[in-house]
Specification:
- The complex is a heterodimer of chains A (about 220) and B (about 325).
- Chain A is α/β, with parallel strands linked by helices and about 220 residues long.
- Chain A has a domain of about 100 residues: P-loop containing nucleotide triphosphate hydrolases (Rossmann fold).
- Helix content of chain A is about 35%, strand content about 25%.
- In chain A, helix 3 crosses helix 4 and helix 3 runs parallel beside helix 5.
- The longest helix of chain A is centred in the last third of the chain and has 16 residues.
- Chain A is globular and about 45 Å long.
- Chain B is an alpha+beta fold and about 325 residues long.
- Chain B has 2 domains: about 190 residues, no CATH class; about 100 residues, 2-Layer Sandwich (Alpha-Beta Plaits), CATH 3.30.70.
- Chain B is about 75% helix and about 10% strand.
- In chain B, helix 2 packs across helix 10 and helix 10 packs antiparallel against helix 11.
- The two termini of chain B are about 35 Å apart.
- The chains are: A alpha/beta (about 220), B alpha+beta (about 325).
- The interface between A and B is medium-sized, with 35 and 31 residues.
Chain lengths: ~220, ~325
């Protein structure tokens, strides 16, 4: 599903974020990407979402080489994935419903379909009764769940989550991770970047460890 | 294949007419959104559109001014002619021989003879001093031959030569050429028109910059939203659209403000204009802002606003790409 082949990312200031990384994530798998801040986790996710381009190497997603995707086609590529960041960056003057509906509006779905899918996504994260609320009326954990609903509302084939529990307490973090595990159960490929080792150890999923831009360890928890 | 990938239809198959509906719907939504965004900060919106309005009213005001002057000169424009004052004692036959002489010039368009009696009658009508004229023993007015000139076929020196030749005829007392005056006015008008064109350019750039700067600030305050939209697969056109509408709205509202300013100025000038009108025998009337002018003004405002917004967006986009 997602393959990195000798990928190196060097920024213009000389900082090497990723150094010759090769990895492979299978379809329907949930993989944790563990590492300290600055280890290159975010860069790796950003490259899959084509927010960054590799300096060297190839990234192949669903048999498509990302280096060959032209700039104007990037938005259409991004519609196939869900990206969840540490800060969900919800639009404060729009309701929860409108926030979650955004990817569908962009893709040009009709109104009935939008309503149906947004309700389903909100139900999945347990926030259906808050669809008319504004983001500031929600707790941080709820806001993150809205971010997740927005990330999955268009039924992407794979989900990328960059520190999705960074701002949350341990109990909420576990809940969020369980939510991701449920998406994996229905066949979505999930890649979660986090620095929380304790949290990762509670789940039986493969973990990739990044350190100083290199893949230093690969553990398979059973 | 997994359940999710089977159902994961992110690309919806739609017919062409649904595409068209979606296209217009997205434009409508973007327009409504930009209008709402302007309404959120009414005061700063008002300041911006007033600035644009004042800018636009400058060339528009000058345009109307020149149009009024043109209007004023229109009455005399027809009189761009040579006038001969002939001895009142001359006979009709003598007058006709002068006319025949004049007819030899190729650029003569029309010749009008006004006998002394007719001239007196006209003078009475215009001046209203009947009683005084009756006291005079005889008609003091000369016969007048006015010659209309096709100015496109003659130069000033042609006319001066003609004047010279005609003034040497025995019965002719005086020859006047008013071509010079009209030409001076035309030079003045063309100066004004050049000035307007220059102002159009300068003010156009000014309005573009005002809108560009305002939209740049708006882009800055919507930075997070733009990041999110980028991430969830919005095309550049989709992200740009509300900002372009915002720019166009600024321009159009600025145009409305400028139309109001000009209408206000015209209203204030109404009194003096009526006085002028009575001075110039109704030749002068204050030219109003016509429907066509207003439409033109709003369209120009829209276009400049759009241009400013697209410049701001492109600049912002380039800056973001460089950062990345």
């Amino acid at each position: 599903m997602i393959n990195f082949i000798n990928v190196t990312k060097k920024y213009s200031n000389g900082h090497v974020a990723l150094n010759n990384v090769s990895l492979s994530i299978n379809q329907g798998e949930l993989v944790f990407l563990l590492g300290h801040s600055g280890a290159g986790k975010s860069t790796l996710l950003k490259m899959i979402a084509l927010l960054e381009r590799p300096t060297r190497g190839q990234i192949v997603v669903s048999e498509q080489n990302l280096n060959h995707i032209k700039s104007y086609k990037i938005p259409f590529y991004r519609r196939r994935l869900g990206f969840i960041s540490q800060n969900p960056k919800l639009l404060n003057n729009a309701s929860i419903f409108e926030n979650v509906a955004m990817p569908l509006i962009i893709a040009g779905y009709d109104r009935a379909e939008i309503t149906r899918r947004v309700r389903a996504a909100l139900e999945r994260v347990g926030l259906l009764e808050k669809e008319q609320c504004k983001p500031f009326m929600l707790s941080e954990g709820e806001q993150q769940r809205v971010g997740i609903a927005r990330g999955v509302v268009h039924k992407p084939r794979f989900l990328l989550a960059d520190e999705p529990t960074g701002n949350l307490d341990p109990k909420l973090s576990v809940e969020i991770m369980k939510l991701f595990a449920r998406f994996q159960q229905v066949g979505v490929t999930v890649l979660i970047a986090t620095h929380d080792i304790a949290l990762v150890e509670r789940f039986p999923f493969r973990t990739l460890v990044l350190g100083q831009g290199q893949l230093i360890n690969e553990e398979v928890c059973v | 294949m997994s359940k999710a990938s089977q159902s994961g239809a992110v690309t919806q198959h739609v017919s062409w007419h649904q595409h068209v509906i979606q296209y217009f719907l997205s434009h409508f939504l973007a327009c409504r959104k930009s209008f709402n965004n302007l309404a959120i900060t009414p005061l700063s919106t008002l300041i911006t559109i007033t600035a644009i309005g004042i800018c636009l009213s400058l060339p528009m005001g000058l345009y109307l001014f020149i149009k009024n002057i043109q209007h004023l000169s229109a009455g005399w424009d027809q009189g761009s002619a040579i006038t001969l004052y002939v001895n009142p004692q001359s006979t009709t036959q003598q007058l006709h021989s002068i006319v025949d002489k004049i007819k030899t010039y190729p650029f003569v368009e029309r010749i009008n003879i006004l006998g002394p009696d007719k001239a007196l009658e006209e003078f009475q009508k215009l001046s209203g001093i009947n009683d005084v004229l009756h006291l005079l023993p005889e008609n003091p007015l000369p016969a007048v031959i006015s010659v209309k000139i096709d100015t496109s076929r003659s130069t000033q020196s042609d006319l001066l030569e003609m004047k010279e030749a005609l003034s040497h005829l025995p019965l002719v007392k005086k020859v006047d050429v008013d071509y010079e005056w009209v030409e001076k006015l035309n030079v003045f008008l063309s100066f004004g028109r050049t000035l307007i064109n220059f102002l159009y350019c300068i003010i156009g750039i000014g309005v573009t910059l005002i809108v560009g700067n305002t939209v740049r600030l708006a882009l800055e305050s919507h930075r997070e939203e733009i990041t999110v939209l980028n991430l969830i697969g919005a095309t550049n056109a989709f992200i740009r659209r509300p900002f372009l509408y915002r720019g166009m709205l600024y321009g159009m509202l600025g145009g409305i403000i400028s139309a109001l300013i000009i209408s206000l100025a015209l209203f204030a000038l109404k009194g003096p204009a009526q006085e002028l009108s009575s001075l110039y025998y109704g030749l002068f009337s204050l030219e109003k802002l016509h429907f066509y002018d207003t439409v033109w003004l709003l369209a120009a405002g829209c276009a400049l606003g759009w241009l400013g917004a697209i410049i701001a967006f492109t600049q912002q986009n380039l800056a973001t790409n460089c950062e990345g």
